[in-house]
Amino acid sequence: MEGAALGHFNVADFPLLKAVLEGAAEVGVPALVGASEGERDFLGTRQLAALVKSLRDESGVPVFLNADHTHSLVKAIEAAKAGFDAVVIDFSALPFEQNVSRTKETVEAIKAINPAILAEGEIGDIGSGSEIHETTQSGGRSLTTPEEARQFVEATSIDVLAPAVGNMHGMVKSMVEGETKKHLDIQRISEIKRAAGVFLTLHGGSGTDDEDLQNAIVAGINIIHINTELRVVWRRSLENSLARDRNQVVPYKILAPVIDSVKRVVSARLKLFSASGSTKVSPARAS
Ligand SMILES: [Zn+2]
Predict the structure, then answer these.
(1) Centre of ligand 1 from the C-alpha of residue 61, in Å
(2) How far, in Å, is the centroid of ligand 1 from the Cα of 202?
């Protein structure tokens, strides 16, 4: 996948899932559907797995299912047993040694259920909550170093690493309005890729500068998570749809424009992520 990355989109309801499927079909690329513990609790872990499988079988669109930010062994096992293709094992809030031991234990448990499952681990601080934040949660935020990335991958046998490289979950208000963008430490991504030698995921991709995203892909990012951007469009298009006709009560008529609006964001992101091979890299960029 040189010069391209997989788009990962979180879903919390069926319209969002349909939008991701339609976006991937339109662009003609595979996509990852993600659900955090909260999203799985709402949709049902086994029910979501059944939905994704049935949509994939019927449409032929290669969509895969990821158990995003899983904070316990029990929840990881539940997702693996339900048929998820990947699990993000997130003990990143714990001290490094505990993160290593809990992650390693979970990798072994889910691989015993399905040897083909992809296990992702996380080190460093990328904040929590794909929401709109008042201010940037800066100060004391620790970025992943290449050396700890190498140690973590070796000690845990993860297939995919989620590093902290300037990315952050959620968006601040100025990002939602498009006035500011997140910037990434491209040099650090290259160094982590070289040291770790595994697939790399960029979490909290919403609101990131397009050129930074393309440069991050060239530097070694393989999967990019987009959640807040979809949530913002979901809410705004739902409000517009409801306001358009106050007597409209047919859910699928109210929700059709929501699916279409979210699909457009998914398509635009997938096009960007698959087009990086053709763009020029400007290594002098300071971010
Ligand atoms: Zn994340």
Answers:
(1) 24
(2) 8
pLDDT digits (tens, 9 = 90+) for 176-207: 988 899 999 999 999 999 999 999 999 999 99
d(CA 204, ligand 1 centre) in Å: 6
pLDDT tens by residue, 124-159: 888 878 888 877 665 556 899 999 999 999 999 999
Structure tokens, 258:
């929501």
Q: Return the HEC string of the chain.
A: CCCCCEEEEECCCHHHHHHHHHHHHHHCCCEEEEECHHHHHHHCHHHHHHHHHHHHHHHCCCEEEEEEEECCHHHHHHHHHHCCCEEEECCCCCCHHHHHHHHHHHHHHHHHHCCCCEEEEECCCCCCCCCEECCCCCCCCCCCCHHHHHHHHHHHCCCEEECCCCCCCCEEHHHHCCCCCECCCHHHHHHHHHHHCCEEEECCCCCECHHHHHHHHHHCEEEEEECHHHHHHHHHHHHHHHHHCCCCCCHHHHHHHHHHHHHHHHHHHHHHHHCHHHCCCCCCCCC
Tokens at residue 42, please? Answer: 């709402």
Å from CA of 285 to ligand 1 middle: 26
- How far is ligand 1, taken at its centre, from the CA of residue 162, in Å? 8
For the segment 28-42, the average pLDDT, to the nearest whole number, is 97
Interval between CA 251 and ligand 1 midpoint (Å): 30
